[in-house]
């Protein structure tokens, strides 16, 4: 087990969210045969993760599929019980909340789920979906709730909102659904929003509008947003700071500009090179990764990235690198978990 | 304010219109399935017959009818006097047949509805809470599964005596298990769906999540299974009637068939043997086709292919 | 189903406050699959009683609950019956056991709690009287008392309906009572015309308990034991005792009977049958107890062996039916087989795979519960030459229809316990001889004579008038039977008394009688009784 | 001569609400050994088009007009038996959309490859297995994984298996329907690279369907941009990306955030509105409702295909205004106006 | 190496289920109205005689003592002695089970082997004429009360045409030499044919309908399209791919059906006078012969539970995605 030093925020203000050594283990499902002939196994979906998010900040969280991004997001709103670690929001450890405290907490913290097709109840009308959180928290009377619902829909970019109130999700396009989804999340005017891959399922022509909404929320409502995505180009567009995850670990964190333009971790670099870009054209000759991602159930002892990494040596295979402040160079004021961070070489 | 008020009425109108459209669409779609439409007609016809039995039946179903000379007419084939003939006790088969529909439908609807309620609740609780609750409830279901239906029905009706109500209770006792399983497995997957997580993230209570968010999504499957249960209930009732544990206070189709069997009418009184058997078969098939009709409306997968 | 119509049947009370409705009564019968006739009688009778404005609540119970209710006297109306084995031609059980006040308690068989000193005396005379004609007179007086006091609402005496295939066997001669063809004397009469050496008895009655004799709990099993074991006497086709293992018998006095054993008899394993075996059988049954045979063994006190061939029975009390009932029902078991069994088990009934060797006309070959019992003729038996076949099969069926189908095609030789509808069917078949054998059964509706309104004879009479016995006869029995006046059936020609009080179906007469006894009706036609009602006529003696 | 000639093909689906023309009078060619990208929004008919090649349309769909000529054979009318034995897989293989679900879950992946080899060749099982191992190596999969079941492989690995499968008989055309959608960037990059390599190796033509402009620009020689059942623009990569002539293509490019700029905010412009309902398509140009340059004429006249340069064709009434469109296309205001205009029209 | 703790857990769960079944049954029968003695003990018996009988069957002990006694004997395979027949229960019901299996094994085998193929055919031609008429027939054979169809069949083949026997397992008086002879003989076949056909017709409808419905879903899966694109012949797609993928629910339903099959069908056995376990149990229920009823119930429950376990294993083989307890993840 590794000890993680907590990355220090470069901001002086009091952090809104403070996560310390958070882990989540899943018991793996096995078939009856393997149960008969084997042992119980665990999957480390989130492994000893620590970070902070400031008021009014958009933090990007990137990494390949299955690295634990969604799990981390769900931990932050207690949709999953952490296996260990603490999550301090506004000075309280939310992992110790009672169910009534949790309910109060949930007014302040909302999630936009990964898949807009799945995240809204197909049997509810738009107005019902959006006003449901108000009802749950007994906010306002019917009239007032409708007003707020309409406002939230308008804020989410669905206008004229009245036209949509009576529709069912399946009568909406993907972009419209995602907006309903967003409206539901912001109708309580939360302080903190987790946006889990909010645009990955959408057509390019509607993505942009959604991204712009987040900017607006940040600016107009001082909302803190954890923006989860595996798509670095949207993160580049939107986020103040960015965290890169690999197999349950945070491997690099820092100002977006630094992370994307001056990556320190080899993995970040690979990620960046893989982003398809209309400008990049057919020059895909850059070195690309080879080999296999290690099995998250059966992790190697050293650096998890070593098997992919072109710079890896025995040390990498033996010792697990800790997340550390980088000290060299002004541009790379971020933290990285690598024995041999890349020197200042912009992509 | 007025502006908003206008908006509201407009919204409500939209909501109403969509509901109306959807209902209309569903009805149309159901009726455009010819078998489902016929099935519905059969079930409604039987329902009509059951409700208005006293007005439709020419005789008391249990009366031993004697003619003016005090002569009984036993095992008479259909005649103008007795359109469907008489049975061995000089009872009017048409009247028995009409009254007999009551028990079948009563058994079907009551057990169907009760099974829907119980099965859904158990399934929801089990699938939603998972863990120990699930383990315990599913063990109970397993145990129920391990006990065969007809023998258990027999024991239960022996235990409580044979009456329509006891038959229904026994039926419910047996049939809720499948519903519970089906609902549970759906709930298991539904409760992992992001929209349920979203409700949770909004602070909804467990009860609210189960009944407001999850249950409506189960409606189709509950209906389909419920209608299936209704068919099964009719058959089970006929089965235990056949074994002589049928209802005593009301004549049922199952009891009619049992009488044809015990009295040996099978070899010669076709007018007595055929109607109840055919009616049971047709009604049960009708329930199945109705469930398929419902399935077709509610399962988008089936709509295009 | 409520009582009565919307109008009062008879007089309405002057002041309704002095009256209360007659309490709701429970009307019980066994379930249909156990006894269709009793069940149907219940259905009909209940409707007819309700016509008088009596509220009833129908309860259909299984046999177990049914006997509990009888034993505990927890019923208002109970459809019940005496079944008619041929030994019931001596109506000891129907008259004595069921109505003597000695049994009007929770242990006894007088379920209706009918009590009358006059009757007790009369029926005791009947029991003790060795002289037949006097005995018949006593019995007929008993019948008169019963008919006048209606302790039970007597309904019908169904005929015993049997059918036999005539292609394979002919010369069918029926015995009086229930077992018309299924008895040794009838089977000795039949002639093999089809060349088939097998007689198959088809039935739907699963045996209660078989084959251990000490386990016997019902008439069917007992009947089959008479195939493998010889009793001292058998009953002839007319129902009178004829010699079997006992060649002759002689009453020494009211409580002493000498029986001479047929000589030269052997068990099927070759051992001789001796008087010791007879004594052993009676003694062990008395000691070990076979509940079903309790009342049969009851009068037996002890036996003495007078010589190699003669045994003397000493009775504890006079019992004129000892020969016809006890000696007929209790056969001779081989001592050399059963003495070990008695020694080896807590109770001999626990011997689960008993050796079925007996001295009887048939050898037990195989028993497959639920399927069949197979017997083969015992060629050493004194009756061996009389049987015109080699094998007797007791074959179980799921339904009577199947039996009839098989009688027609010859797979079954004969059947009994038929329902009227099946019998009609069989009667229509050319190669089947279907007979409607006058029965000894007596059906009725048992009522608690010591409770509430039932205490008044007129109330009981009124109920009896309300019952349409003819409808039962015509509908339920399809005319195959007789209306009942008392527990003795007309088929019992010797004892039957036809000249007794009768209660034809007549609602007006019922109303009249009820009014006389103080009952009234309210506007809805419900029967009312005065709040302080007391019975006035509790017993009507013989003139 | 071209490998495949698609000439005036329309595909119609029978639905409860009447016939739906998913592909409407489309003509183009596929040249030997080239990669043709097809891009377009969800529901514009990409999958329908590709399924038409192998006549794999759903039961309620049919090719209503036009011909698809392959090697002199009209695929639209050839007998089912000949199609099955001569064309399918031998000549044209297929990587279906959602390829991760395209493997039979109850057979091992190796068995499925072996099955298809045995089906079309006289190879013995042993030979087929060898060939399979070869194919696995070709797609960078460990041949030992032939014994695995699909669910035991990651999404990317499954995708490789379907590619291996499609190569089994060295076809002359591979039709790949969104082979990278749903995969994370790194894997997507690997797959694209793999397809490019394979093409170099065996010289087959590839039809590559995607909705990701970035991907298509990286991999294709030529691109067809589909919109609402029509081909809005088709041409080489340079034609379509640098000399875009159709307003829709221009709009699509705007919607892509770029990695090389930071911050990139100002560049993102969404295309307002949504595609028309194909059940009841509007008269005139189908993009008219969303097009900032639409005129009255566009509303009534169905634009026909105009060839601009050699092989660069668009369906637009104003091919001559294309440079004007391109210039204004980069300004957010251009698109905003259209949106407001549309909003005004709706009520 | 077998994971003993997991195997133990599974077996433990099975044992718990069985234990619960036995316990529930034990008490269920003892709260039936009419105590068990009433069947064995004629009302004519004296109090003394009754007590003697109660003692003989251990019925005079308090309920909990009876229960513990029962459980203790149960552990050593002693299920008591039949009130009715005086025989030990276990050999008695096992013997009846053989009779039952003569009817049910062929029926279930045909139903669950042929049924899925028919269902697959229907699904393939979904909404075609074959499917429409075929499903209607399958539904009808399921919906027609089995005793009614049984009666009609008897009437036609046995009473009217007289080509098949009317019931029972063999002609009267014939004694099967050996158990093997009882099962495999021409007469048995002759007697069993009608009930087997009726039973099969009734049983086969569920596998048909289940397969059909599941397969319609499966046919919508992408891999079917790919198989088609590969040029795989239709029949291969239909049976090797689509049907195999649709078998899971059939297997689980089949496990139940096989389990219940050990108990036979009371109704069928009644109609065809077949001395199977179902009929025996029904007689025993009526006679309050608890040891037999409990034994029979136990046997069936045991089989259901056992076959469920087997089905769990079979389904992992059929569909490698299946996790514990038959759930596809
Ligand atoms: N409920 C669960 N039970 C067991 N394992 C889980 C569960 N949820 C997630 N996992 C596993 O945890 C790991 C992290 O999953 P997570 O959904 O957080 O990934 P992600 O980064 O969001 O991926 P994606 O980009 O595909 O959304 C994966 O290996 C996943 O299989
Ligand atoms: N079987 C069908 N029946 C009726 N309509 C269909 C059917 N299949 C597709 N469609 C419709 O045809 C149009 C084109 O569908 P198609 O699947 O070709 O789109 P696509 O471009 O591949 O979209 P995506 O990017 O979502 O895969 C859509 O409007 C779709 O709804
Ligand atoms: Mg995720
Ligand atoms: Mg597609």
TrEMBL record, chain A:
SUPFAM superfamilies linked: P-loop containing nucleoside triphosphate hydrolases
Keyword ATP-binding annotated: yes
A GO BP annotation: peptide transport
Molecular function, one GO term: ATP binding
InterPro entries: AAA+_ATPase, ABC_transp_ATP-bind, ABC_transporter-like_ATP-bd, ABC_transporter-like_CS, Oligopep_ABC_C, P-loop_NTPase
Pfam family, one: oligo_HPY
Keywords: ATP-binding, Nucleotide-binding, Transport
Residues in ABC transporter domain copies: 17-272
Designated name of the protein: ABC transporter ATP-binding protein
From TrEMBL, chain B:
Chief subcellular location: membrane
Gene3D superfamilies: MetI-like (1.10.3720.10)
Protein biosynthesis recorded as keyword: no
Short name of any one Pfam family annotated for the protein: OppC_N
Membrane topology annotation: Multi-pass membrane protein
Superkingdom of origin: Archaea
Protein's UniProt keywords contain Magnesium: no
GO cellular component terms listed in the entry, alphabetical order: plasma membrane
Segments passing through the bilayer: 35-57, 105-129, 149-176, 218-243, 269-290
Subcellular location as annotated: Cell membrane
ABC transmembrane type-1 domain ranges (all copies): 101-291
One GO BP annotation of this record: transmembrane transport
Keywords from the UniProt entry: Cell membrane, Membrane, Transmembrane, Transmembrane helix, Transport
Membership in a protein family: Belongs to the binding-protein-dependent transport system permease family.
Designated name of the protein: ABC transporter permease
Organism per entry: Natrarchaeobius halalkaliphilus
Automatic annotation (TrEMBL), chain D:
Protein name: ABC transporter ATP-binding protein
GO molecular function, one term: ATP hydrolysis activity
Source species taxonomy: Archaea, Methanobacteriati, Methanobacteriota, Stenosarchaea group, Halobacteria
Presence of keyword Isomerase: no
PROSITE patterns listed in its UniProt record: ABC_TRANSPORTER_1, ABC_TRANSPORTER_2
Residue stretches making up the ABC transporter domain: 4-253
Any one GO biological process: peptide transport
InterPro entries recorded: AAA+_ATPase, ABC_Ni/Peptide_Import, ABC_transporter-like_ATP-bd, ABC_transporter-like_CS, Oligopep_ABC_C, P-loop_NTPase
TrEMBL record, chain E:
UniProt GO BP: transmembrane transport
Transmembrane parts of this sequence: 12-32, 101-124, 136-163, 183-202, 250-272, 292-311
Signal peptide as annotated in the record: none
Superkingdom as given in the UniProt entry: Archaea
Record's subcellular location: Cell membrane
Membrane topology annotation: Multi-pass membrane protein
Keywords on record: Cell membrane, Membrane, Transmembrane, Transmembrane helix, Transport
Chaperone is among the record's keywords: no
Presence of the UniProt keyword Repeat in the record: no
Family: Belongs to the binding-protein-dependent transport system permease family.
Record's protein name: ABC transporter permease
Organism expressing this protein natively: Natrarchaeobius halalkaliphilus
């Amino acid at each position: 087990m590794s000890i993680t030093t907590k990355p220090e925020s470069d901001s002086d203000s009091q952090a809104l969210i403070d996560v310390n050594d958070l882990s989540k283990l899943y018991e793996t499902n096995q078939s009856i045969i393997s149960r008969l002939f084997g042992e119980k196994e665990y999957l480390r979906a989130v492994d000893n993760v620590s970070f902070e998010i400031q008021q009014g900040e958009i933090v990007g969280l990137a990494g390949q599929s299955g690295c634990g991004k969604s799990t981390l997001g769900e931990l932050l709103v207690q949709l999953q019980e952490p296996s260990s670690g603490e999550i301090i929001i506004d000075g309280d450890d939310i992992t110790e909340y009672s169910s009534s405290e949790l309910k109060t907490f949930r007014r302040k913290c909302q999630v936009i789920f990964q898949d807009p097709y799945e995240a809204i109840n197909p049997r509810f009308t738009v107005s019902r979906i959006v006003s449901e959180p108000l009802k749950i928290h007994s906010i306002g009377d019917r009239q007032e709730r409708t007003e707020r619902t309409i406002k939230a829909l308008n804020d989410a970019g669905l206008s004229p909102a009245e036209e949509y109130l009576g529709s069912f999700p399946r009568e909406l396009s993907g972009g419209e659904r995602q907006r309903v989804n967003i409206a539901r999340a912001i109708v309580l005017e939360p302080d903190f929003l987790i946006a889990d891959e909010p645009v990955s399922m959408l057509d390019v022509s509607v993505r942009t509008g959604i991204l712009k909404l987040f900017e607006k929320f940040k600016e107009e409502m001082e909302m803190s947003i954890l923006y989860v995505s595996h798509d670095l180009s949207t993160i580049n567009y939107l986020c103040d700071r960015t965290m890169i995850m690999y197999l349950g670990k945070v491997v690099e964190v820092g100002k977006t500009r630094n992370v994307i333009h001056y990556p320190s971790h080899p993995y970040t670099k690979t990620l960046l090179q893989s982003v398809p870009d209309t400008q990049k054209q057919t020059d895909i000759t850059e070195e690309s990764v080879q080999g296999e991602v290690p099995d998250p159930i059966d992790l190697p002892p050293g650096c998890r990235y070593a098997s992919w990494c072109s710079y890896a040596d025995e040390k990498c295979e033996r010792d697990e690198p800790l997340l550390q402040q980088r000290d060299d160079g002004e541009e790379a004021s971020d933290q990285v978990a690598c024995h041999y961070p890349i020197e200042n070489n912009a992509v | 304010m007025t502006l908003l008020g206008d908006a509201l009425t407009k919204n409500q109108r939209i909501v109403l219109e969509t509901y109306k459209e959807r209902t209309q669409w569903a009805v149309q779609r159901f009726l455009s399935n010819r078998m489902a439409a016929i099935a519905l007609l059969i079930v409604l016809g039987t329902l009509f017959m059951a409700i208005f039995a006293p007005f439709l039946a020419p005789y008391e179903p249990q009366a031993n009818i004697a003619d003016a000379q005090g002569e009984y007419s036993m095992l008479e084939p259909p005649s103008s006097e007795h359109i469907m003939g008489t049975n061995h006790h000089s009872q009017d088969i048409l009247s028995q047949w009409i009254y007999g529909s009551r028990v079948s439908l009563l058994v079907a609807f009551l057990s169907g509805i009760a099974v829907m309620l119980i099965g859904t609740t158990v399934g929801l609780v089990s699938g939603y809470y998972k863990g120990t609750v699930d383990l315990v409830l599913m063990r109970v279901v397993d145990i129920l599964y391990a006990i065969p239906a007809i023998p258990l029905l027999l024991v239960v009706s022996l235990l409580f005596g044979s009456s329509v109500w006891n038959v229904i209770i026994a039926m419910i006792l047996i049939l809720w298990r499948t519903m519970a399983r089906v609902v549970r497995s759906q709930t298991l997957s539904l409760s992992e769906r992001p929209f349920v997580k979203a409700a949770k993230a909004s602070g909804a209570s467990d009860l609210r999540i189960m009944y407001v968010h999850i249950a409506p999504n189960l409606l189709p499957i509950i209906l389909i299974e419920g209608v299936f249960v209704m068919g099964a209930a009719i058959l089970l009732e006929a089965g235990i009637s056949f074994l002589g544990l049928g209802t005593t206070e009301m004549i049922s189709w199952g009891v009619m068939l049992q009488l044809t069997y015990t009295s040996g009418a099978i070899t010669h009184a076709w007018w007595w043997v055929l109607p109840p058997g055919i009616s049971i078969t047709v009604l049960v098939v009708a329930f199945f086709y109705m469930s398929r009709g419902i399935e077709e409306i509610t399962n988008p997968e089936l709509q295009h292919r | 189903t409520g009582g009565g119509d919307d109008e009062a049947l008879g007089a309405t009370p002057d002041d309704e406050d002095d009256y209360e409705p007659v309490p709701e009564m429970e009307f019980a019968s066994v379930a249909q699959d156990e006894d269709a006739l009793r069940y149907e009688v219940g259905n009909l009778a209940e409707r007819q009683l309700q016509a008088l404005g009596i509220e009833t609540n129908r309860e259909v119970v299984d046999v177990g609950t049914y006997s509990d209710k009888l034993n505990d006297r927890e019923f208002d109306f109970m459809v019940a019956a005496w079944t008619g084995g041929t030994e019931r031609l001596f109506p000891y059980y129907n008259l004595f056991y069921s109505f003597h006040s000695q049994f009007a308690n929770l242990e006894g068989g007088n379920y209706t709690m009918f009590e009358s000193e006059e009757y007790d005396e009369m029926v005791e005379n009947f029991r003790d009287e060795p002289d037949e004609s006097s005995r018949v007179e006593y019995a007929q007086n008993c019948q008169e008392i019963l008919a006048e006091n209606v302790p039970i609402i007597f309904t019908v005496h169904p005929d015993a309906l049997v059918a036999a295939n005539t292609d394979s066997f002919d010369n069918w001669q029926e015995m009086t009572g229930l077992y018309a063809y299924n008895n040794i004397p009838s089977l000795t009469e039949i002639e093999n015309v089809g060349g088939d050496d097998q007689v198959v008895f088809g039935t739907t009655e699963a045996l209660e308990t078989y084959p251990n004799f000490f386990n016997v709990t019902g008439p069917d099993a007992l009947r089959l034991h008479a195939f493998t074991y010889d009793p001292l006497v058998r009953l002839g086709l007319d129902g009178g005792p004829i010699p079997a293992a006992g060649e002759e018998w002689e009453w020494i006095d009211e409580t002493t009977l000498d029986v001479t054993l047929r000589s030269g008899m052997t068990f099927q394993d070759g051992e001789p049958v001796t008087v010791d075996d007879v004594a052993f059988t009676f003694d062990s049954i008395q000691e070990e107890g076979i509940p079903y045979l309790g009342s049969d063994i009851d009068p037996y006190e002890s036996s003495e062996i007078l010589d190699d061939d003669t045994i003397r029975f000493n009775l504890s009390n006079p019992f004129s039916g000892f020969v016809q009932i006890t000696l007929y029902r209790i056969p001779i078991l081989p001592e050399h087989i059963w003495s070990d069994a008695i020694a080896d088990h807590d109770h001999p009934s626990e011997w689960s795979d008993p050796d079925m060797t007996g001295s009887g006309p048939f050898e037990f070959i195989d028993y497959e519960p639920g399927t069949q019992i197979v017997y083969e003729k015992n060629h050493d038996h004194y009756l061996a030459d009389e049987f015109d076949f080699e094998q007797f099969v007791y074959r179980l069926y799921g339904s009577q229809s199947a039996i009839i189908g098989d009688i027609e095609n010859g797979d079954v030789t004969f059947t009994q316990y038929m329902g009227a509808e099946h019998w009609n069917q069989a009667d229509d078949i050319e190669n089947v001889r279907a007979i409607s054998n006058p029965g000894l059964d007596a059906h009725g509706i048992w009522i608690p004579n010591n409770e509430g309104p039932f205490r008044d004879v007129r109330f009981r009479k009124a109920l009896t008038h309300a019952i349409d016995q003819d409808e039962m006869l015509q509908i339920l029995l399809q005319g195959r039977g007789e209306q009942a006046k008392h527990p003795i059936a007309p088929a019992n020609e010797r004892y039957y008394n036809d000249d007794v009080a009768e209660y034809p179906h007549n609602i007006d007469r019922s109303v009249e009688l009820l009014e006389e006894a103080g009952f009234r009706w309210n506007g809805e036609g419900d029967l009312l009784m005065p709040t302080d009602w007391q019975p006035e006529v509790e017993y009507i003696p013989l003139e | 001569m071209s490998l495949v000639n698609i000439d005036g093909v329309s595909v119609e689906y029978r639905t409860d609400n009447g016939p739906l023309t998913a592909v409407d009078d489309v003509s183009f060619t596929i040249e030997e050994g080239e990669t043709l990208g097809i891009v377009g929004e969800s529901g514009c008919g990409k999958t329908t088009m590709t399924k038409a090649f192998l006549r794999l349309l759903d039961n309620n769909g049919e090719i209503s007009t036009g011909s698809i000529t392959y090697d002199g054979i009209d695929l639209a009318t050839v007998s089912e038996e000949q199609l099955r034995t001569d064309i399918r897989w031998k000549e044209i293989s297929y990587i279906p959309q959602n390829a991760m679900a395209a493997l039979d879950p109850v057979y091992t992946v190796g068995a499925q490859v072996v099955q298809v080899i045995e089906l079309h060749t006289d190879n013995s099982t042993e030979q087929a297995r060898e060939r399979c191992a070869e194919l696995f190596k070709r797609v960078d999969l460990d041949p030992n994984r032939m014994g695995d079941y699909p669910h035991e492989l990651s999404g990317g690995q499954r995708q490789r298996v379907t590619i291996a499968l499609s190569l089994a008989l060295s076809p002359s055309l591979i039709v790949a329907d969104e082979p990278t959608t749903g995969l994370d960037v790194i894997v997507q990059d690997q797959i694209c690279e793999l397809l490019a390599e394979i093409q170099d190796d065996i010289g087959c033509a590839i039809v590559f369907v995607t909705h990701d402009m970035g991907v298509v620009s990286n991999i294709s020689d030529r691109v067809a941009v589909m919109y609402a059942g029509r081909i809005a623009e088709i041409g080489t990569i340079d034609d379509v990306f640098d000399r875009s002539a159709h307003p829709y293509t221009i709009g699509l490019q705007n919607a892509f955030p770029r990695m090389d700029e930071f911050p990139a905010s100002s560049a993102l412009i969404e295309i307002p509105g949504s595609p028309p309902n194909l059940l009841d398509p509007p008269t005139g140009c189908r993009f008219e409702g969303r097009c900032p340059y639409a005129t009255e004429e566009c509303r009534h006249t169905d634009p026909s295909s105009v060839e601009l340069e050699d092989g660069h064709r668009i369906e637009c009434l104003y091919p001559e205004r294309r440079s004007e469109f391109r210039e204004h296309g980069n300004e957010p205001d251009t698109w905003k106006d259209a949106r407001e205009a549309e909003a005004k029209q709706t009520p | 190496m077998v994971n003993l703790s997991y195997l133990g857990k599974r077996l433990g769960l099975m044992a718990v289920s069985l234990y619960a079944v036995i316990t529930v049954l034990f008490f269920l029968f003892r709260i039936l109205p009419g105590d068990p003695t009433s069947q064995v003990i004629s009302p004519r018996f004296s109090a003394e005689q009754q007590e003697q009988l109660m003692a003989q069957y251990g019925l005079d002990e308090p309920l909990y003592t009876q229960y513990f006694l029962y459980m203790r004997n149960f552990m050593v395979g002693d299920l008591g002695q039949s009130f009715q027949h005086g025989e030990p229960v276990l050999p008695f019901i096992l013997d009846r089970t053989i009779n039952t299996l003569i009817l049910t094994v062929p029926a279930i085998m045909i139903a669950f082997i042929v049924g899925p193929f028919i269902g697959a055919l229907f699904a393939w031609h979904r909404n075609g004429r074959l499917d429409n008429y075929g499903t209607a027939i399958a539904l009808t054979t399921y919906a027609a009360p089995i005793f009614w169809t049984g009666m009609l069949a008897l009437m036609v083949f046995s009473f009217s045409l007289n080509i098949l026997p009317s019931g029972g397992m063999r002609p009267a008086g014939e004694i099967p030499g050996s158990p093997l002879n009882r099962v495999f003989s021409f007469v048995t076949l002759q007697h069993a044919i009608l009930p087997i056909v009726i039973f099969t017709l009734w049983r086969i409808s569920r596998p048909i309908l289940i397969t059909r419905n599941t397969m319609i879903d499966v046919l919508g899966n992408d891999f079917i399209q790919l198989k088609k694109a590969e040029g795989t012949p239709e029949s291969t797609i239909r049976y090797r791919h689509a049907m195999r993928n649709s078998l899971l629910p059939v297997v689980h339903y089949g496990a139940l059906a096989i389990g219940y099959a050990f108990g036979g069908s009371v109704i069928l056995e009644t109609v065809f006078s077949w001395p199977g376990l179902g009929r025996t149990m029904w007689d025993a229920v009526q006679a309050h012969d608890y040891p037999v009823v409990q034994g029979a119930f136990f046997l069936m429950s045991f089989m259901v539970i056992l076959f469920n376990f087997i089905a769990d294993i079979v389904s992992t083989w059929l569909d490698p995605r299946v996790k514990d307890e038959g759930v596809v993840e």
